[in-house]
Amino acid sequence: MVTSDPITRRLRRLFAVLDADEEGFVTWGSYQRIVDRYTVGYALAKSDARIKDLQRAYWAQWLGLLSQAPPGLDRLSREEFVAANRALAYGSHAAQLLEDLAQAVFNVLDVDGDKRISRDEFARYLEFCEISSADAAVVFRRLDLDGDAFISQGEVARSLRAFHLYNDDLNTSGGIFLGLC
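The structure corresponding to this sequence follows.
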Protein backbone atom coordinates (compact mmCIF):
# COMPACT_ATOMS: atom_id res chain seq x y z
CA MET A 1 0.00 0.00 0.00
CA VAL A 2 1.39 3.38 -1.01
CA THR A 3 1.00 6.11 1.57
CA SER A 4 1.26 9.74 0.60
CA ASP A 5 3.21 12.40 2.42
CA PRO A 6 1.51 14.43 5.19
CA ILE A 7 1.02 17.53 3.03
CA THR A 8 -0.76 15.55 0.33
CA ARG A 9 -2.94 13.86 2.95
CA ARG A 10 -3.84 17.25 4.49
CA LEU A 11 -4.67 18.67 1.06
CA ARG A 12 -6.87 15.66 0.32
CA ARG A 13 -8.70 16.23 3.61
CA LEU A 14 -9.12 19.89 2.70
CA PHE A 15 -10.47 18.86 -0.69
CA ALA A 16 -13.02 16.58 0.99
CA VAL A 17 -14.19 19.46 3.19
CA LEU A 18 -14.38 21.90 0.29
CA ASP A 19 -16.23 19.37 -1.88
CA ALA A 20 -19.30 19.68 0.35
CA ASP A 21 -21.66 18.51 -2.37
CA GLU A 22 -19.43 15.45 -2.94
CA GLU A 23 -19.47 15.83 -6.72
CA GLY A 24 -15.71 15.26 -6.89
CA PHE A 25 -14.67 18.82 -7.70
CA VAL A 26 -13.75 22.04 -5.95
CA THR A 27 -14.94 25.32 -7.46
CA TRP A 28 -14.91 28.96 -6.44
CA GLY A 29 -18.28 28.23 -4.79
CA SER A 30 -16.47 25.87 -2.42
CA TYR A 31 -14.37 28.77 -1.15
CA GLN A 32 -17.34 31.11 -1.09
CA ARG A 33 -19.00 28.71 1.35
CA ILE A 34 -16.08 29.23 3.75
CA VAL A 35 -16.49 32.99 3.49
CA ASP A 36 -20.21 32.56 4.09
CA ARG A 37 -19.49 30.53 7.26
CA TYR A 38 -17.46 33.43 8.63
CA THR A 39 -20.18 35.88 7.61
CA VAL A 40 -22.88 33.92 9.41
CA GLY A 41 -20.70 32.83 12.34
CA TYR A 42 -19.72 36.41 13.12
CA ALA A 43 -23.05 37.95 12.11
CA LEU A 44 -21.30 40.29 9.68
CA ALA A 45 -22.81 41.90 6.61
CA LYS A 46 -21.47 40.78 3.25
CA SER A 47 -20.49 44.41 2.75
CA ASP A 48 -18.34 44.46 5.92
CA ALA A 49 -14.72 45.29 5.03
CA ARG A 50 -13.47 42.23 6.93
CA ILE A 51 -15.67 39.90 4.89
CA LYS A 52 -14.72 41.65 1.65
CA ASP A 53 -11.03 41.25 2.54
CA LEU A 54 -11.59 37.58 3.38
CA GLN A 55 -13.40 37.03 0.10
CA ARG A 56 -10.59 38.77 -1.84
CA ALA A 57 -7.98 36.62 -0.09
CA TYR A 58 -9.84 33.40 -0.91
CA TRP A 59 -10.45 34.62 -4.47
CA ALA A 60 -6.70 35.19 -4.86
CA GLN A 61 -6.07 31.68 -3.51
CA TRP A 62 -8.56 30.27 -6.02
CA LEU A 63 -7.04 32.18 -8.94
CA GLY A 64 -3.62 31.00 -7.81
CA LEU A 65 -4.79 27.40 -7.89
CA LEU A 66 -6.31 27.84 -11.33
CA SER A 67 -3.04 29.34 -12.57
CA GLN A 68 -1.33 26.06 -11.65
CA ALA A 69 -3.98 23.84 -13.23
CA PRO A 70 -4.41 22.88 -16.89
CA PRO A 71 -5.73 25.86 -18.90
CA GLY A 72 -9.46 26.40 -19.15
CA LEU A 73 -10.54 24.69 -15.93
CA ASP A 74 -13.08 26.28 -13.62
CA ARG A 75 -13.18 23.34 -11.24
CA LEU A 76 -10.53 21.00 -9.90
CA SER A 77 -10.64 17.28 -9.21
CA ARG A 78 -8.98 16.00 -6.05
CA GLU A 79 -5.66 15.25 -7.72
CA GLU A 80 -5.73 18.51 -9.71
CA PHE A 81 -6.45 20.36 -6.47
CA VAL A 82 -3.55 18.68 -4.67
CA ALA A 83 -1.14 19.25 -7.56
CA ALA A 84 -2.20 22.90 -7.94
CA ASN A 85 -1.80 23.53 -4.20
CA ARG A 86 1.62 21.89 -4.19
CA ALA A 87 2.74 23.92 -7.22
CA LEU A 88 1.27 27.14 -5.84
CA ALA A 89 2.92 26.62 -2.45
CA TYR A 90 6.33 26.74 -4.08
CA GLY A 91 5.53 29.58 -6.47
CA SER A 92 6.80 33.12 -6.20
CA HIS A 93 3.48 34.51 -4.91
CA ALA A 94 2.76 31.81 -2.32
CA ALA A 95 4.04 33.72 0.69
CA GLN A 96 1.97 36.79 -0.16
CA LEU A 97 -1.19 34.77 -0.81
CA LEU A 98 -0.89 33.03 2.56
CA GLU A 99 -0.02 36.29 4.32
CA ASP A 100 -3.08 38.00 2.82
CA LEU A 101 -5.31 35.10 3.85
CA ALA A 102 -3.83 35.06 7.36
CA GLN A 103 -4.43 38.80 7.72
CA ALA A 104 -8.02 38.53 6.50
CA VAL A 105 -8.84 35.61 8.81
CA PHE A 106 -7.12 37.33 11.71
CA ASN A 107 -9.12 40.53 11.19
CA VAL A 108 -12.40 38.62 11.41
CA LEU A 109 -11.39 36.69 14.54
CA ASP A 110 -9.92 39.74 16.33
CA VAL A 111 -13.37 40.99 17.29
CA ASP A 112 -12.18 43.70 19.69
CA GLY A 113 -9.52 44.98 17.29
CA ASP A 114 -6.64 44.79 19.78
CA LYS A 115 -4.32 43.06 17.26
CA ARG A 116 -4.43 39.71 19.04
CA ILE A 117 -6.87 36.83 19.32
CA SER A 118 -7.75 35.97 22.90
CA ARG A 119 -8.93 32.58 24.11
CA ASP A 120 -12.49 33.92 24.20
CA GLU A 121 -12.30 35.24 20.64
CA PHE A 122 -10.87 31.94 19.46
CA ALA A 123 -13.52 30.01 21.40
CA ARG A 124 -16.19 31.97 19.52
CA TYR A 125 -14.64 30.90 16.22
CA LEU A 126 -14.42 27.27 17.28
CA GLU A 127 -18.00 27.35 18.53
CA PHE A 128 -19.36 27.92 15.02
CA CYS A 129 -16.87 25.31 13.78
CA GLU A 130 -18.50 22.93 16.29
CA ILE A 131 -15.24 22.06 18.04
CA SER A 132 -15.50 21.03 21.68
CA SER A 133 -14.06 23.21 24.42
CA ALA A 134 -11.59 20.46 25.34
CA ASP A 135 -10.30 20.32 21.76
CA ALA A 136 -10.35 24.13 21.58
CA ALA A 137 -7.78 24.39 24.38
CA VAL A 138 -5.44 21.99 22.57
CA VAL A 139 -5.78 23.82 19.24
CA PHE A 140 -5.25 27.19 20.91
CA ARG A 141 -2.05 25.99 22.61
CA ARG A 142 -0.73 24.63 19.30
CA LEU A 143 -1.39 27.96 17.58
CA ASP A 144 -0.03 30.14 20.39
CA LEU A 145 3.60 29.51 19.44
CA ASP A 146 5.12 32.07 21.80
CA GLY A 147 2.97 31.01 24.78
CA ASP A 148 1.67 34.53 25.54
CA ALA A 149 -1.97 33.34 25.79
CA PHE A 150 -2.90 35.13 22.55
CA ILE A 151 -2.74 34.27 18.85
CA SER A 152 -1.04 36.89 16.73
CA GLN A 153 -1.47 37.51 13.02
CA GLY A 154 2.05 36.11 12.59
CA GLU A 155 1.06 32.91 14.35
CA VAL A 156 -1.95 32.54 12.03
CA ALA A 157 0.36 33.04 9.03
CA ARG A 158 2.91 30.52 10.33
CA SER A 159 0.18 27.94 10.89
CA LEU A 160 -1.07 28.38 7.31
CA ARG A 161 2.47 28.01 5.95
CA ALA A 162 2.99 24.90 8.07
CA PHE A 163 -0.22 23.42 6.70
CA HIS A 164 0.91 23.92 3.10
CA LEU A 165 4.66 23.50 3.28
CA TYR A 166 6.63 22.56 6.29
CA ASN A 167 4.98 20.37 8.83
CA ASP A 168 5.01 16.59 8.86
CA ASP A 169 2.19 16.57 11.41
CA LEU A 170 -0.95 15.37 9.65
CA ASN A 171 -3.09 17.36 12.07
CA THR A 172 -1.28 20.69 11.89
CA SER A 173 -3.50 23.39 13.33
CA GLY A 174 -3.32 25.72 10.31
CA GLY A 175 -6.11 23.82 8.60
CA ILE A 176 -8.54 25.25 11.13
CA PHE A 177 -8.44 28.54 9.19
CA LEU A 178 -9.08 26.82 5.86
CA GLY A 179 -12.32 25.09 6.77
CA LEU A 180 -10.92 21.97 8.43
CA CYS A 181 -13.00 22.53 11.50
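Residues 42 and 108 are 8 Å apart (CA to CA).
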